[in-house]
Amino acid sequence: MTPETDPGTTYPPTARTTATRSRDRMSYDRAAVHAVLDEAYHCTLGFTRDGEPRVLPTLHVRVGDTLYLHGSTGSRPLLAARGDGLPVCVAVTLLDGLVYGRSQFHHSANYRSVVAHGTARLVTDEREKADVLTALVEKVGAGRSADSRPPNRRELAETAMLALPLREVSLRVRAGGVREDEADLALPHWAGVVPLRLTPGRPEPDAGVTVPVPAYLRAARSPWHEPAVLRGDHVVLEPLDLAHADELHTATADPEVWAHLWRPLPADAAGTAAVVTEALAAHERGERVPWVQRCAVTGAVVGSTSYYEVDPQRGSVAIGYTFLGRPWWRTGINTEAKLLLLAHAFDDLGAARVVWHTDIRNERSQRAIERLGATREGVLRKHRRRPDGSWRDTVQYAMTVDEWPNAQVTLRERLRRTAPVA
């Protein structure tokens, strides 16, 4: 940029952006201001209308050195901005913590707050408006603009945007701990900071949604806690989602499938949806990594399986919470699913040990685990409660990374002799 157009690294202070108190908390750093505007999802828009002060909350997005404010074509600030524009003041605040002092006077808050002054113009160019709306959608989820319907002409006409050039801007920050009078330091009261942060919860699909939660709405996790897509000739493992519940219920609604599981047979699709919701909640807490199992030939949902007791520090993970529809028993699907999970654990994650737990009454499951090459390590007495309330003794098996090479050869040879199910 030329010196005439280079905005520099700071905003120049003005009479309106110069503090009269606590000037050490003020900043005009351009990058720091932009970071706060980009992190926050909403702002407060102040203006004067008919001689009276007005304050409205609204959404915003920053594009370069312009702050765009979302609104309706019939709203007061948008109507007032026609013509020469509207003098406004915009405030954006991120609350980072509550500060507890020994004295009530020294209770405070940690925060980052941007205030911008200027004259906002009404965006009238349709291309600019469409680009800003795309930027606003991308702000709530990178990739969302390509994963949703763009606005039509009527919707564009009903939407208005204000554009505020970022020229007269300041950032005020309070960070750190308690600032106490020395005379109060000996008081017998707890003092300190309680950090606050805005964190997304687990996405809740709208009624009728049949597609899984997109990747950009899933929480970023370590590879140990991320259900990566695993593909084989017989089965494909993909992240479990509530959208799979109906198909999963159809495939597994059989008393024998649920005979030794941790929950009784779901009575209907809503019951299976509750099982899926439980698995997703456990994943959100970092307790499970759930997959849905699809037939690699037909694409049909046939079952589910999970990692649990995930311990990257010890290099250990357990495989369980597995249920598979009866038509796919004694096919290559279960064997290949375990092979994929073992390969992911040992080869991709660097695990030293993989564990299985099964009900001591479940002889079929014990024989299946032994055929994988796992070693029976013992019985955990009164380990869990069964759905009927009785105590379950649990048989524990494990395979170590030293045993994995031979087990892998055996499993691949067994699958080579098994044709995929059509």
From TrEMBL:
Position of the signal peptide: none
Gene Ontology molecular functions: acyltransferase activity, transferring groups other than amino-acyl groups
Keywords: Transferase
Alphabetical list of Pfam families matching this protein: Acetyltransf_3, Pyridox_ox_2
Presence of keyword Transferase: yes
Gene3D superfamilies: 3.40.630.30, Electron Transport, Fmn-binding Protein, Chain A
Residue spans of biased composition, Low complexity class: 9-20
Annotated stretches, region: Disordered: 1-26
Domain N-acetyltransferase: 248-402
Protein's recorded name: GNAT family N-acetyltransferase
